[in-house]
């Protein structure tokens, strides 16, 4: 058998051994494939070489030159090898003249310095020649060669497996951290605004929570937050938040519950959701709060919005008392308004009207048939306006010194005419000394009040005196001011009698 045939056979054996090693990797332990360097060099090598020699002798008769080389190499195995041999030469076996201890040049009789490098018994490696490596490979038994190949493959696979195990362990740690985080309650904050609410004295705000946590479990519960929106703790997940009922402030204030709902996703602890879930609780008029609203607020206050059922009861009583007081106040106002309206309402045989609110309490009236006079309270000689009903087709002439200030058609064949002094002009003319008529002379406070009543305070007294009227004696601007105001507050209320 030539060298090429032997190499092919060895390669086939190597491939078969590698395949067997891969298939039986799960049966190979590190203890089985670990090698002791000293055992291989001292014990296995002679045995392997002997088996290789026997196999070579049985299978092939080597050529004379190869046999001679093998004999020479066999004999050389019993002799110390050369510098290119397999074994190494120790430093302590060198001749004395080759020692590393030497006299330093140029020092003459200087003491000898020992520069010996203590290498111990560490051998210096030698590199075999290509021919020696080839011979050694041929001498190695297939069994040992296969084991070495299998060992190398196994070590590589084990090393790769160790790397995979490390990466897999890291992934498992990350997964475990995520899983642990998914089962940790997260504190979140929402946005709430309730004017005047202090949950340390009143009740907390009940928040209805529904949705699904990270485990896929359905969630439906009521949690409570303070006036800052803090107090919710949930597992990570997707939820819908809404206000379940009103809280109750310490003074008994009950709020209007917003109908809005917010969709949120909880991912981490301390998450601020105020931009996604913001609720504004408005304060309604206390008299409009119902018993149902108070009862619902008290129910949630007792279930978790306060420290105890007794505290919830106190707040419920405060809410009821506040509502009742508001209702009573509104009722009293309505009753007074009704009395005032009745007092302001005037009627003749042909028409009826309401005294303007702005005039109520400041004027009085007298009546004669279908004529009604409205005058300054406490002074019947100072009429503000006189109303007279005139049949259609008939003319109307006001009293001396009065001016027609407006008219209202009743639709029943009559028209009501309003007449009286133009006080923004008359009063100012009197004050300016334009007339000496005692009837037109008024004290300053009376003059100011008459101007206010006939103009509705749309201008100050000084504006009327200096701008609208002035000293030119013209009454047009003052007259228009009064007629416009009466047309707004008095004439629209004049209606035909039922």
Q: What are its keywords?
A:
single chain; 498 residues; alpha+beta; 5-stranded antiparallel beta sheet; 4-stranded antiparallel beta sheet; 17 strands; 42% helix
What portion of the residues fall into strands of 2 or more residues? Answer: 15-25%
Content-based structural category:
alpha+beta
Helix content: 40-55%
Q: Going across the biggest sheet, name each strand in turn.
A: 12-13-14-16-15
Uncertain residue ranges:
28-120, 432-439
Tally the helices: what do you get?
A: 12
Short description:
The protein is 42% helix and 18% strand. It is of the alpha+beta class.
Write the layout of secondary structure elements.
Blueprint: H1 3-23, H2 30-33, H3 37-59, H4 64-76, H5 130-139, H6 142-182, E1 186-189, E2 191-194, E3 205-213, E4 218-225, E5 230-234, E6 237-243, E7 262-266, E8 271-272, E9 278-281, H7 291-305, H8 309-344, E10 345-347, E11 351-354, E12 363-368, E13 371-376, E14 383-391, E15 403-409, E16 414-420, H9 423-431, H10 444-455, H11 461-469, H12 476-489, E17 495-496
Parallel strand pairs: 1-8, 2-9
Antiparallel strand pairs: 1-5, 3-4, 3-6, 6-7, 10-11, 11-17, 12-13, 13-14, 14-16, 15-16
Helix pairs in contact: 1-6, 7-8, 9-10
């Amino acid at each position: 058998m030539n060298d090429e045939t032997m190499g092919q056979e060895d390669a086939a054996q190597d491939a078969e051994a590698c395949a067997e090693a891969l298939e039986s990797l799960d049966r190979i332990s590190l203890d089985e494939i670990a090698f002791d360097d000293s055992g291989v060099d001292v014990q296995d090598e002679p045995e392997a070489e002997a088996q290789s020699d026997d196999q070579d002798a049985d299978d092939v008769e080597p050529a004379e030159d190869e046999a001679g080389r093998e004999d020479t190499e066999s004999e050389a195995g019993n002799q110390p090898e050369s510098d290119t041999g397999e074994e190494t030469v120790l430093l302590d076996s060198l001749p004395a003249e080759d020692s590393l201890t030497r006299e330093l040049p140029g020092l003459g009789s200087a003491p000898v310095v020992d520069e010996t490098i203590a290498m111990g018994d560490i051998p210096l490696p030698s590199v075999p020649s290509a021919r020696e490596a080839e011979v050694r490979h041929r001498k190695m038994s297939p069994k040992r060669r296969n084991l070495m190949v299998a060992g190398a493959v196994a070590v590589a696979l084990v090393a790769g497996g160790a790397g995979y195990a490390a990466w897999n362990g890291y992934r498992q740690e990350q997964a475990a951290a995520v899983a642990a985080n998914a089962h940790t309650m997260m504190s979140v904050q929402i946005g709430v605004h309730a004017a005047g609410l202090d949950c340390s004295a009143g009740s907390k705000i009940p928040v209805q929570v529904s949705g699904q946590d990270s485990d896929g479990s359905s969630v439906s519960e009521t949690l409570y937050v303070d006036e800052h929106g803090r107090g919710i703790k949930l597992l990570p997940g997707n939820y819908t938040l809404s206000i379940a009922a009103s809280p109750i402030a310490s003074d008994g204030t009950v709020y209007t519950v917003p109908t809005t709902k917010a969709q949120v996703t909880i991912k981490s602890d301390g998450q601020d959701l105020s931009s996604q879930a913001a609720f504004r609780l408005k304060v309604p008029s206390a008299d409009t709060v119902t018993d149902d609203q108070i009862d619902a607020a008290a129910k949630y206050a007792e279930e978790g919005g306060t420290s105890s059922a007794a505290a919830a009861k106190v707040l419920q009583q405060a809410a009821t008392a506040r509502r009742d007081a508001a209702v009573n106040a509104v009722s009293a106002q309505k009753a007074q308004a009704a009395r005032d309206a009745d007092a302001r309402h005037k009627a003749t045989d042909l028409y009826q009207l309401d005294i303007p609110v702005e005039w109520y309490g400041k004027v009085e009236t007298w009546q004669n048939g279908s004529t009604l006079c409205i005058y300054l309270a406490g002074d019947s000689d100072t009429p503000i306006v006189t109303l007279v009903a005139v049949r259609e087709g008939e003319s109307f002439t006001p009293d001396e010194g009065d001016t027609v200030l407006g008219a209202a058609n009743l639709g029943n064949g009559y028209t009501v005419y309003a007449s009286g002094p133009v006080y923004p002009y008359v009063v100012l003319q009197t004050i300016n000394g334009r007339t000496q008529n005692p009837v037109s002379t008024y004290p300053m406070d009376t003059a100011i009040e008459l101007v206010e009543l006939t103009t509705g305070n749309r201008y100050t007294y000084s504006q009327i005196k200096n701008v609208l009227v002035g000293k030119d004696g013209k009454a047009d601007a003052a007259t228009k001011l009064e007629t416009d105001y009466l047309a707004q507050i008095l004439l629209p209320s004049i209606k035909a009698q039922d």
